[in-house]
Amino acid sequence: MLGTNGSEGAMVYTTAQNNLSLQKKKLAQEQFEIRLKKFTHNRASVFGLAVVVLVIVLAVFAPLIAVHDPLAMNTADRLKGISAEHWFGTDNMGRDVFARVLYGARISLAVGFTVGLVSGFLGLVIGLYASTNALADNILMRVCDGLKAIPSTLLAITMMAVLGADIKNVIISLIVVNIPNMARLARSQALVVKEQTYIEAMRCLGSSQKRILWAHIVPNILSPMIVQMTFVFASAIITEAALSFLGAGVPAPAPSWGNILKEGKDVIYTAWWMILFPGVFTALTVLGLNLLGDGVRDLMDPKSN
Amino acid sequence: MQKFIVKRLLSVIPVLFVVSVVIFTLLKMVPGSPAATLLGDLATADDIAKLEEKMGLNRPLVEQYFIWIGNMFHGDFGISTAGGEPVASMVFSHVKPTISLALYALVIASVIAIPMGMLAAKNKGTGVDHGVTVLSLAGISLPSFLFGLFLMLLFAVKLHFFPVSGYVEISRGFWPHIKSLTLPAIALGFMNAALMMRMTRSAMLEVLGSDYIKMAKAKGVRNFVITTKHALRNSLVTIITMIGQSAVQMLAGAAVIESLFSIPGLGQLMVNSIGRRDYYVIQAIVLLIALFNVLINMLVDLLYGVADPRVRAT
Amino acid sequence: MKSKKLKRFLALVLAAAMSLTACSGSSGTQSSTGSGPASAPENATYRETLHIAVTQQAPSLDLHKNSSLIARQICDGTVWEKLVTLNSKAEAVPELAEKYEATNDGKTLTFTLRKGVKFHDGSEMKADDVVASMNRWIEGFSSAKTMVGDARFTKVDDSTVKIDGKTSLILLPAMIAGAAQPASITTAAACKNEDSNGFLKDYIGTGPYKFSEWKQDQYVKLERFDGYVPYGTKGTEMDGWSGYKAAPTKILQFDLVADQATESAGLEAGQYDVAFNVSYDDFDRLTNNPNLTTVSSQMGSIAFIPNHKQGIASKQYFRTAVNTALDCDEVLRAAYGGGYELGSSYMDAGQPFWKSEAGKENYNQKDLEKAKKILTDNGYKGEPFTILVSTLNKMDNMGIAIKSQLEKIGIPVKLTVVDWATLTEYRKDPTKYDMYITTFAEVPVPSLKLYYGAAYPGWSNDEKLQTLFKEMTSAPTLEEAKAKWDELQGYSWEYLPIICPGHYMGMFAWQKNVTGINMYSGGPKFWNAGIVES
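The joint structure predicted for all components is written out below.
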């Protein structure tokens, strides 16, 4: 754990107060460079990074790449196979699947990213404060246990039924589903760090609790949180697809990989392209994110040195 | 040990309380009424209102909550709006397919994952290891319903190895039962196998890297004995936890696979019940799964003691 | 009863019944398919179980209280029978009644019951059972209640029942024979034995099959009733729903397969003998399969119901503009693939008597320029238009198509996509939408078109519309009623209580070796169906 402290310190100690921390910073810098080298040598992680970057680029420049409007329908042309005009064929409403997959990337990535980020942040805050106060800890953790005990698919579907079909609500539902795990992780990590002697020392020196929490504990628990957030990012993309499959995902007509797959499933015998292309995109993106997550974990975990 | 069990059992109560409040409140906020879905499209507003009164849906929320909880203590879980069947018998009949499916998937996952994870750990850095890593990542990255669809298309429609869908009860023969569950179990087990493979690998690596294994190696203990007797035994704790968690996850998360393969399990019942606003059924299932969840976690803790003597002391 | 009057009455019933749910379809499947038991060799052995895949589950099998199509498809005529049923000419003909008569004024109907008919519990059908069943049906079925008012069935003697109405009840036999909530006859005791929600606990009928088992989300199993007392002559063909039911198959099992792709694949793999509601996108493939027979038939009509109470759609010009712009072909294809038929008639093809061309010049105009002009002429300022639509049966795809069409004439459309149960709640609230999308199963007479009710969500509380509707329902003869209906439908295409873009089809498929399927209305029936074992 001390090692983790070192590597993260480089980013957080903006106002170095003494020689020790300066030295530490240097050391951390070196270590970081070593690990970065390691990361780039790990072909899997680089591949993951490349895939994720590629998908992001495709999503961002979707309007430039896709000739067709993802919403423009022409039912006379429904379920047409691959052609020069429609690279990925057309869907059950005669829309261009290529355009829908690219624009769908925007939505699926946005859903995944937001869910990862926000549930990570909220989990962090909840976990941190739970670690400081026994009463709060009890209440928050019981609520988290309760939420965790409810099957996540069911919880998300029910919340969608309450909130109404909307991208925003898909995100909210998935965040709620993911917070308990994040909070648990943050709490357990924070409890470990709190026991470290230097934190004890700071407390004795009279540092405020807020400062201890945010300036010292957070940096030390950030790396497992970030790794976990990558995995939540990936799993949120899958969960969104599963929700769409059950009819509670991103509502039509906006394309998301999940709802393209769902519509494709109904015509799988006639229009394999509606399953294959968004399916491959989904799988590759999730694969890329997982590889990236693994890479980042190795990068940050001193044990793997 | 007894004290530990009692303590763990008591800790179930607050969890179940939170679960019951959350799900009850959420369901009451969902628009749409069970009476309306039950009576169908030709019913008048008056008919619907009358049935709602009969069902007690017009009472204050808090009162409804306590009536539900109170009735449960008397063993009355309410009546489903689907066919008027008592909720308990309905849940019971749906839990069997899910348990069969989850067990089967778990067996498939464990049989694939644990040996492969061990193999990868033993041959760290080699092609075998990379192969296993890629396979496990593929498993995690492939949504289960997509995998299920591909399996269905290939093995049922094209090759006729398995029935496309539907569920055969075990009372109608063990093999037909297994046959009807094979494709969904593979689809469901694949992702869990992937997770298990990863965790087995890392747990084994950790153990293999420990001093006592090095010591054993130095003493000239055969490799096979090291892997099976020492390393596997000591990674068992992690593996048991993982299997336990997978079991809970499968019980709860089989909804998509169940609806794809038309298996009348808990997951499908859950999703259908939301569609028909069958409150009592959803509440009962959620409580049941929460209970499973807590109990399996407890069982895992107890198994720790069996697998790892160090834990037994506490 | 004077024979002249009776003749006139029967003619009326006949005409009314003609309007009933006859099945028609693009593929012309009016008659029963398969050759029926008559052509099967004498003493042929039939396979014990027929597996029929269905995609939906009934909320309840209590047909008195629920209009679920699937419950009717499974149980009507198999488990339960009615006093009268429909023959292939859509006439109401006796089934459990031996005969029925009406008084001159049509206010009193008397039914003479067949003797010796056995219920599944072994008891004999008596007037008490019929009275209890018919009255329970009236209580549970709002349309029947509206027709008969306070009148109820009473017992005359053990084998005679009657009903005395304040107004003419000449349409009642037609309704008994073919309504969406069938007037099933069960025992008086079963009528009283209800669960806490008021639904039947025991499913006891007089039909050739008795209810055996209902496994939720899995199957409904019916088993041959050996004490069945058939009507008609053995060996004759069925005539519509009427005639001799041989029940050659011991067990009819309706397997629930929620997923249509799975269902079609199961049919092709031979796992199911019959499949209900196959997807349009699988239909061509199934039709080309040499082992399968496929049939499609019109099942009902689609309705876009504007909110006439408040908001932008309560303005006549706006509704007219929307209707002028719509390309119905495009909208329907988005949701149904090819499983639909265009047509401006509010009544479905199964009711040829009521089919009307009135107002068709306003149907499916696809005239964007004209629509735009209507909007600008009336000072439309780009107010948003909210369409409420459910994901049930891909109806949301129609919403998407409408949205894309209306945005071409400058109407900003907001889609509210919800599940069906939520839609039934939201549509009651006029602040929640400007138009919602739903479908209506075919009805025997236009007086059953719910959306003409001023209180029905959509609130077509227009004076002229309501007057025309009343004049139609109280018309003394069917011809006059039809004339009024033409006038009403013509006006409807101007006022737009609903926009009816067309009619949806039901698609069915079965193995070629299945004989005796009765394909008449609302889907196949299986009382003479079976597979001869070779």
